[in-house]
Design brief:
The complex is a heterodimer.
Chain A lengths: L14 H19 L3 H23 L2 H17 L10 H23 L17 H15 L4 H11 L5 H8 L3 H19 L8
Chain B lengths: L19 H11 L9 H15 L3 H33 L1 H4 L1 H10 L4 H23 L1
The chains are: A mainly alpha, B mainly alpha.
């Protein structure tokens, strides 16, 4: 079993490791279906960091992301019978996060809560406060036009530094599909945010 | 004020090029994922507790049916009693075997014989009850 304290694989896992994870998860799922909640606890510990990462990228707020993680694991437990044991567990629960996260994000947008400013980059800001506020508003506006998948993919690629293959493994998408979503999201974001950064060319 | 950064390169021919200016702006606006601010043990416990709280214990089914089951049980008991009382008057020979069975067992008769006799009694009562309902 992989170290539960690790933040999740940053590179696509080798085939042997993938197979071992698949077998471990299938065993845990079977035990959980038979009412062994400690087996499900092990699944939670193995995937909560990865789930939180995606959840945060969907809702952009730590406490909401934690609530979303809890909500998604409960949903996963309730619908465990519909999980195909031959498939990896990570992408399955990630899909639940994307679906449920969309609803949470919309309800949060209605509450108009500001994002957590203390978790935004600790690096010195290159934008003054007014420009930054304006850029954030523009970003929120454009992000709202993207679907959950595109929003998560563009932030995982351009902010978290993951490759398209790594993102594809997490979301169970072909790398080409990830690149297409990335292209679409970047096109929309660049068009909207272009005036906030200078073009070298 | 604007950001001054340079375009980065991709890691493979198929990989999209990394635009560091764009990445830096996005990072500044959406922030890093605060992985180190989460108490993972607490979150795992919270999830586990929420799942256990949603499980349905067997006694909750009893509680759920208690209100409906009690009157039904009383009605069934009353019906059974009335059938027995009624059959006592119409077929007294059918119900004499219960005390007979008890006394036979007490006297040391094989319990199988006593049980057979009692089963006949119940069958008679059931047949009578069916006749009554029809």
């Amino acid at each position: 079993m992989s170290d539960p304290d690790s933040p999740g694989p940053l590179e696509p896992a080798p085939a042997d490791e993938r197979r071992a994870t698949l077998e471990r998860d299938a065993t845990l799922v079977r035990r959980a279906r038979n009412g062994d909640t400690t087996a499900f606890d092990d699944l939670v510990k193995a995937y909560m960091r990865q789930v939180f990462h995606v959840a945060y990228r969907v809702v952009g707020h730590r406490e909401d992301a934690e609530d979303l993680v809890q909500d998604c694991f409960i949903a996963a437990y309730q619908y465990l019978d519909s999980f195909d044991e031959t498939r990896p567990f990570g992408p399955w629960i990630t899909r639940i996060v994307l679906n449920r996260g969309a609803n949470l994000r919309r309800s949060r947008a209605r509450r108009a809560t500001e994002p957590e400013m203390d978790v935004v980059s600790t690096a010195p800001s290159a934008l003054d406060e007014a420009t930054r506020t304006e850029a954030r508003e523009k970003l929120d506006e454009v992000m709202a036009t993207l679907n959950e998948r595109q929003r998560v993919i563009v932030t995982m690629f351009d902010v978290d530094g993951l490759t398209s293959a790594e993102i594809g493994e997490r979301l169970e998408l072909a790398a080409g599909t990830v690149r297409w979503h990335l292209h679409e999201a970047r096109r929309a974001l660049r068009a909207a945010l272009h005036r906030f950064f200078e073009d070298d060319a | 004020m604007k950001l001054h950064l340079h375009r980065g390169g991709g890691t493979s021919p198929d990989e999209p090029r990394r635009d560091r200016r764009f990445g830096a702006l996005l990072r500044e606006l959406v922030g890093e994922v605060p992985m180190n601010q989460v108490n993972w043990d607490s979150l795992a416990s919270r999830v586990g507790a929420a799942i256990r709280a949603r499980q349905t214990p067997w006694w909750s089914y009893v509680e759920r049916w208690q209100r409906r089951a009690l009157p039904l049980a009383l009605a069934a008991g009353a019906l059974g009693a009335s059938v027995l009382v009624h059959s006592w008057f119409t077929h007294p020979e059918a119900l004499t075997s219960l005390p007979d069975m008890v006394s036979a067992v007490v006297a040391g008769a094989p319990s199988e014989d006593a049980a057979t006799t009692f089963a006949h009694t119940l069958t008679s009562a059931a047949v009578y009850a069916t006749d009554l309902l029809e």
